[in-house]
Design brief:
The complex is a heterodimer of chains A (186) and B (558). By secondary structure, chain A is of the alpha+beta class. Helix content of chain A is 26%, strand content 35%. A 6-stranded parallel beta sheet of chain B has the order 2-1-3-4-6-5, with helices on both faces. Chain B has a 6-stranded parallel beta sheet with strand order 9-8-7-10-11-12, sandwiched between helices. A 6-stranded parallel beta sheet of chain B has the order 14-13-15-16-18-17, sandwiched between helices. Classes of the chains: A alpha+beta (186), B alpha/beta (558).
Chain lengths: 186, 558
């Protein structure tokens, strides 16, 4: 006979599916990858090939020159995030992936808005909105004003909605970058 | 030392004895180094042939297959073989020449961005930018190709860098921070899996190509035989469990046995080992194995819950996990009597729905009969490679494979023309074994140039050509699902195969009478050189049973 206690019955019906599925929310993936030629193409190509959409992507150096940081946002309603991360992990140059928890993350994006201003009143109003959003006026011309806003993507979307009626000439966004809150490394 | 000479040292350090390829402008330095490196080079006639030969070599031996090509067209000709190696997880290293670094990006002569082209179809690729990195790159390539879930790795070496002088020191260790495959398997999960198996009343063991890649055939068999557990394997897994064992249900999937497919349909527990729930296995996914819970053992975590959600996932190497699972399962001393009802049901299907065909009443050769004759002529012992189509499925159904690495075919990508070059590679790897390529007439002509290689390099493969004058599988689909509108499937203008073989300097034979078939195969096997046997089979025989595309196991026809 086997050891006592090893033979308890397990009902197959009680087994639950582990992992998988869609979470229905936005995910911010913070990826550390070796700073090798083609690594961006590999990551972007993987998303294209597997049919995953990237909502935003920001790439930059880290404190270690041999390592780059990719911050990717992906919609968890349309893609199974664990499948996305597992596929990313298969790239040899990808060292670490962290799916940042929304509550434990500081995420920021920078956006530049070029807004049409035909008169002083409009300009004053736009600059006032910029103030409220803690934005900065970075360029002014006779018929336009350019405002820099930093924040979460919600905040930037809110500012966009506010200034669009004035005539939004163009908008440039960096995509979110993020770090985990607290002492631990992202 | 010249970088190319360092490459040869690295190849030898990796234990490489054979490589397949074709020289050209950009890899001239490599071939200069190869000239007296003491590695046998098989000079192929097309780079695709070299690529598939490297795959056949790897699949037959379990060692890394190596193919060489020059830049541009040489490299692009490898693409199909690279994609094939990716889909079937074949450990392979592709070493391509690239134009000089000062020409890269200028549309130079024979320039193609092969690392860009192959990015979606490689496990990894390395474009050399500093010649001093070459030795490390070669060892990384072999390490990545052969560990974890195996696959193709491309190393692209610009011509000028390959001629550079570099300090060479043997590389003893590869360090890749982003590449650390899990091998061991979680002990708790293994215990839970054993418990689930012991409490299952209708289990099925479902083995795939991963069992063979992991060299875990014996461990797989031990697990299955530790109790009266029913076993099925995928097309890629055939040979992992001996087809002459009582517990064998036959292959599953689109052209699998009814018993294997019905067993999946009614199972309460499916133990998937090194298998990936491909659409050719599951049929309609939403109706696949609706009553089952799934244990999924795979070395690639991304396969788990990709297609079918797993209840007990175990990531790791089958070779290390299966003995632990067997031990845990044995310790539970599950009552074999609990499986009696299940076996009654399985035996009922086996009796009612055996693999069968209508034998011809005259001298006509039925394709299934041809596979049976092949089995008898080779005592069931040959390494069999195949192309892709009906003949491949009949081989899978009727040649009872009894050991791993005996069956070599293109499963995932389904590459017609795979058979002859892969047989060539298998024969180079295993010169003491009979290597037979069961070819289709539509497929064989796609890579037939490799007969020249077989003759020139004295690689005595035997090609048994199942000649039905059609692209048979496409014709079958047109017959069944497209109102018999036979669009571009007749192989008109096919060559006189006997004369073609002779033109290459090989022996050609023609058989159209079933009474002569077995002896013809035997005499072909007895020949010293390569032989092509053109076997005229029933032109419009269909391959049954089958699950029509997009339907469920229950909907099998034929």
């Amino acid at each position: 006979m086997g050891e006592p206690g090893t033979k308890e019955v397990l009902h197959l019906e009680d087994l639950e599916v582990s992992g998988g599925g869609r979470t229905g929310r936005k995910h911010v993936l913070s990826i550390l990858a070796e700073n090798k030629p083609g690594v961006l193409a590999r990551i972007a190509g993987l998303f294209a090939r597997r049919g995953f959409n990237i909502d935003s992507l920001a790439v930059g150096p880290t404190d270690d020159v041999s390592i780059s940081r990719f911050t990717l946002t992906v919609d968890g309603a349309t893609h199974p995030i664990d499948q996305v991360t597992k596929q990313l992990h298969k790239l040899v140059h990808v060292i670490k992936i962290r799916d940042l928890e929304p509550g434990e993350t500081v995420a920021r994006e920078l956006a530049l808005f070029k807004i049409s201003c035909q008169d002083g009143d409009t300009r004053a109003q736009v600059m006032q909105y910029a103030d409220i959003f803690r934005g900065k006026t970075v360029d002014v011309s006779k018929r336009s004003v350019t405002v820099e806003v930093t924040g979460t993507d919600d905040k930037i979307a809110a500012f966009e909605e506010l200034v669009r009626p004035f005539g939004l000439i163009e908008m440039v966004r960096t995509g979110e970058v993020a770090v985990a809150r607290g002492r631990s490394a992202t | 030392m010249r970088a190319v000479d360092a490459i040869m040292e690295c190849l030898k350090a990796e234990g490489v004895e054979h490589v397949f390829g074709i020289p050209g402008g950009a890899n001239l330095p490599t071939y200069d180094a190869l000239y007296d490196a003491g590695i046998r080079h098989v000079q192929c006639r097309h780079e695709q042939g070299a690529g598939h030969a490297a795959e056949g070599y790897a699949k037959a031996s379990g060692r890394v297959g190596v193919a060489l090509a020059t830049s541009g067209p040489g490299a692009t000709n490898l693409v199909t073989a690279i994609a094939d190696a990716m889909m079937d997880s074949v450990p392979t290293v592709f070493l391509t020449g690239q134009v000089r670094t000062d020409l890269i990006g200028t549309d130079g002569f024979q320039e193609a961005d092969i690392s860009g082209i192959t990015m979606p179809i490689v496990k990894h690729s390395i474009l050399i930018q500093d010649p001093r990195d070459i030795p490390k790159a070669i060892h990384e390539a072999f390490h990545i190709a052969s560990s974890g879930r195996p696959g193709p790795v491309l190393v692209d070496v610009p011509q000028d860098l390959s001629r550079a002088d570099i300090p060479y020191e043997p590389v003893s260790k590869v360090h890749l921070p982003g590449y650390q495959p899990t091998t061991e398997g979680n002990a708790k999960q293994i215990r839970l899996a054993a418990k689930a198996m012991a409490n299952s009343r209708r289990p099925v063991i479902y083995g795939g190509g991963g069992v063979i890649n992991a060299n875990a055939g014996p461990e797989f068999r031990d697990l299955c035989l530790s109790d009266n557990l029913p076993v099925t394997c995928t097309l890629m897994g055939l040979g992992a469990f001996p087809a002459d064992e009582r517990q064998w249900l036959g292959m599953l999937g689109m052209h699998g046995t009814r018993t294997a497919n019905y067993a999946m349909d009614e199972a309460d527990l499916i133990v998937a080992i090194g298998a990936r729930f491909d659409d050719r296995v599951t049929g309609k996914l939403s109706e696949f194995a609706p009553r089952a819970k799934f244990i999924h053992i795979d070395v690639d975590p991304a396969e788990i819950s990709k297609n079918v959600p797993a209840h007990i996932p175990i990531v790791g190497d089958a070779k290390s996990i299966l003995p632990k699972l067997t031990a845990e399962y044995r310790a539970l001393e599950a009552d074999p009597a609990r499986l009696e009802g299940w076996w009654q049901r399985l035996h009922g299907w086996q009796e009612k729905y055996p693999l069968r065909y209508d034998p011809s009443e005259d001298s006509e050769i039925k394709p299934q009969f041809m596979v049976e004759a092949m089995f008898e002529a080779t005592d069931g012992q040959a390494i069999v490679t195949s192309d892709v189509g009906q003949h491949q499925m009949w081989a899978a159904q009727y040649y009872g494979f009894t050991r791993p690495r005996q069956w070599i075919n293109s499963g995932g990508l389904g590459t017609m023309g795979f058979g002859l070059p892969s047989a060539m590679g298998a024969k180079v790897a295993c010169p003491d074994q009979d290597v037979v390529c069961l070819a289709g007439d539509g497929s064989l002509i796609m890579t037939v140039q490799e007969f020249a290689t077989c003759v020139d390099e004295q690689i005595p493969v035997k090609v048994f050509l199942m000649n039905n004058g059609y692209l048979g599988m496409v014709r079958q689909w047109q017959e069944l699902f497209w109102d018999k509108r036979y669009s571009s499937v007749k192989m008109g203008g096919s060559p006189d195969w006997v004369k073609l073989a002779e033109a290459f300097g090989a022996k050609g034979m023609l058989v159209s009478d079933k009474s002569e078939l077995k002896d013809a195969f035997k005499s072909a096997l007895a020949e010293d050189g390569p032989v092509l046997v053109d076997v005229r089979v029933s032109p419009e025989e269909n391959c049954y049973p089958m699950i029509p595309a997009g339907q469920a196991a229950r909907d099998m026809v034929g």
